[in-house]
Amino acid sequence: MTPPRDAGGTPAQRTSTGRVRVRGNDYRVLGPPELLTPQLTVSVVIPAYGGQDKLDLVLQGLARQSYPAELTEIIVVDNGTSPPLRLPGGTAARLVVCDKPGRAAARNAGLAEATGDVIHWLDSDVVLTPGAIEAHMRWHHAAPYVVVTGYIRFTEAPLPEVLPDDPEAAFEPAEPHAWIVDLVERTDGLTADPQRPFSLHVGGATSVNARLVAAAGPMDDDLILGQDTELGYRLAQAGAVFVPEPRARAYHLGPTMRMRDKQPIDRVSHAFVADRIPAYRWLRGHPARRWKIPYISVVMDGTAGYDTVRPAVDALLAGTVPDLSVLLVGPWERLGGERRAPLKDPDLELVLVHGHYAHEHRVRLASTEQIDPSVPFVLRLPPGWAPGEDTVARLLDLARDEGLGLVNVLLHESADGVVAARLERTSAFARARLVADPDEDLDDAVDTVSGVAWVEGESYGFTTEPTPPTRRRAAYKARVEAQAEVARRADENERLRAQVARWKEESGRWRKSAVELRREVGTLRRQIAAANRAQRSLRVLVSTTMKRALRGRLGG
């Protein structure tokens, strides 16, 4: 097989174990085999509520798959149908009953029973074409951290009792899944640095490595809608690469609920997923409220002393990124309830930090580092250094704009070593752990899958002598706007000064021209006067000559 190549045409980087590293979401370097030697098992999980006639056709489609039946497990989850669903004779599927309502609960029940290397989510009204599962599995044989989604078309064709030999001819004409097609086309197949490739994870016909699901966790059955997208986000945080596979074709028997009621469904879904998916920034328009999953968590040493910890924490809380939490790590459990002389308490510094932030909702006090893996970014800040009001926002902009997995911030350098802060992208570090060689430095692995940069702390506003935070958050905005106005007026002043200088220069030229013009006019006036005198002399001469001539004639 031809070795996989990156987007530039050079051979893709491999680990010592032969695993290909994907940078960003450019899955093209994986180069899945055209001639597959199947080795991995797959569990097809089908949640179902009613629709026996459609389920029968779905199971017939699974029986015709080109992927080996002995490597395929089919689990149908009856989510409370009355009368209960039945499995047609001759099917290899197993039936599981889930009494808890909701598609997420049903999928989780099937997931608990699944034994395959790969989990293939399939809706009970989606019929796969014969090569669909094999098209999925080609990618899973190439890498253990991919999420593959097929192309679904929506058909209004009458339901046959038996699946035709050519389902594509029977179910056409059909409409494509327009939203997915648009997403794929405008991002060059999800390879052109898409901001949210996890949106491709839809429950209708998507497959994912079972170990990746175990790392991300099952579907959130507290959600009313949007469970598949929310799981897709957690899969991305776990290091997943998302692949659209056009050869994995399927037909949805009838329109979906979203196609019928998109706006009301979005209204319900957005009300819940805003708390859980920080990447959906437009759903978090409130300037100060707290969310279940913050956009960034800052980790600090809570034992560094009250006068050291407080300025940095207060600066973080007063910054322009309110979607933030602070984790102070320290032995808080040893602070007992016994009364002591406060100034003689050996744990006085801990007591002061604890007392100051115990009731601040954006600060957590923990004995060990506990960061939710769903948090997109983690900033590790050494003691004694405080950010400016816009420092965190600027670092986040840099990481997002450049697609970086790690931004190192040089704070101080001396003979004793380097003091640095670190902004880490959680998903990049998760991917790096999946592909790193046993003895490889994790930062080096992050550099290969996402990128690493160094910046100067001073240029980003870090200081050891922070100014007290302003009492109103609007003060920063007002100052920035005032500074921008001052800069604008300074530029305008310079422009006007330059224009005045040009006018003065032009005026000088005009004055010089006027003097020259006056001289020319004087010369012309003198020439005209001389001409007038000459004309008068000529008239006198002509008159005298004529008179003489007349007298001569008369006298003769």
From TrEMBL:
What Pfam families does its record include? Glycos_transf_2 (PF00535)
Instruction: Give start and end of each Glycosyltransferase 2-like domain.
Output: 43-153
Q: Which domain of life is it from?
A: Bacteria
Species of the source: Nonomuraea longispora
Instruction: Provide the alphabetized UniProt keywords.
Output: Coiled coil, Transferase
Protein name per its UniProtKB record: Glycosyltransferase
Q: Which Gene3D superfamilies match?
A: Spore Coat Polysaccharide Biosynthesis Protein SpsA, Chain A
Q: Which InterPro entries match?
A: Glyco_trans_2-like (IPR001173), Glycosyltransf_2 (IPR050834), Nucleotide-diphossugar_trans (IPR029044)
